[in-house]
TrEMBL record:
It comes from Streptomyces polyasparticus. Gene3D superfamilies: 3.40.50.12500. InterPro entries: Asp/Glu/hydantoin_racemase, Hydantoin_racemase-like, Iso_Racemase_Enz_sf. It comes from the Bacteria. Signal peptide: none annotated. Pfam families: Asp_Glu_race. This is Asp/Glu/hydantoin racemase. Belongs to the HyuE racemase family.
Length: 240
């Protein structure tokens, strides 16, 4: 089984971190292929960058030359999953939805801890669109920019753990979701600080993708995710 794990930003070191977390969660015999888009922002922290990332991720997957069995979109609250589902028959799993869906098996309510406050509405909208918002106690921002997770990991971990503790104590969350692909590998400190289960979206997405492939399930093409209709694309250099 081969699973493509696509970072939404162009920071190679973050792709490496995401890939390592995916490999840790993967079963024997599953090949994880981490991919970095050829264009886009070095971090995605708003709607403009997110829409650009959606195009970049779709083009990265569309141009991948080898067969694959599933795709993971490794960006939290980002656009583009629906477009990938139109382009592909294989399962497409978004880490935002994977983390929230997994959290609902572990407790009555969950909270998401993300990076900057401006990312909160994007995540809230994604959860609402996916039908996963009813049991979301809160989406909280740690105040740490995405790239700061690598530049100052100790401060980032502490800020995330502190905000997670507030979600448990003030919002009554029973499960914490790490709300950024770059937070992969930070679960242990948050568990120590909060005492509740902590879901890493990349790891959750890998296990869900594997399950869908093993069940022989594919993306429905009857209506919403039917393939794009053939059209002329004016001045679009990557058009088929």
């Amino acid at each position: 089984m081969r699973i493509l794990v696509v970072n939404v930003n162009t920071t190679d070191s973050m792709t490496k971190t995401i890939g390592e977390q995916a490999m840790t969660a993967a079963s024997p015999g599953t090949e994880i292929v981490p991919l970095t888009p050829a264009f886009g922002a070095d971090s995605v922290e708003g709607n403009y960058e997110s829409h650009l990332a959606a195009i970049a991720v779709m083009e990265t997957v569309r141009s991948y030359p080898e067969p694959f069995d599933a795709v993971i979109q490794a960006g939290y609250g980002e656009h583009g999953r629906e477009g990938l589902q139109e382009l592909l028959d294989v399962p497409v799993v978004d880490i935002t939805e994977a983390a929230a869906a997994t959290a609902q098996f572990l407790g009555r309510s969950y909270s998401v801890i993300t990076t900057l406050d401006r990312a909160v509405p994007l995540i809230e909208d994604r959860l609402l669109l996916a039908g996963l918002s009813a049991r979301c106690a809160s989406v909280r921002a740690s105040g740490m920019p995405v790239l700061e997770l690598e530049r100052d990991p100790a401060a980032a971990v502490e800020a995330i753990a502190e905000e997670a503790a507030r979600a448990v104590e003030q919002d009554r969350a029973e499960v914490i979701c790490l709300g950024c692909g770059g937070m992969s590998g930070l679960s242990e400190r948050v568990v120590e600080r909060t005492g509740v289960p902590v879901v890493d979206g990349v790891a959750a997405a890998v296990t869900i993708a594997e399950s869908l492939v093993r069940l022989g399930l594919t993306t429905s093409k009857v209506r919403t995710y039917a393939p794009p209709r053939p059209k002329q694309f004016r001045a679009w250099p990557m058009a088929v």
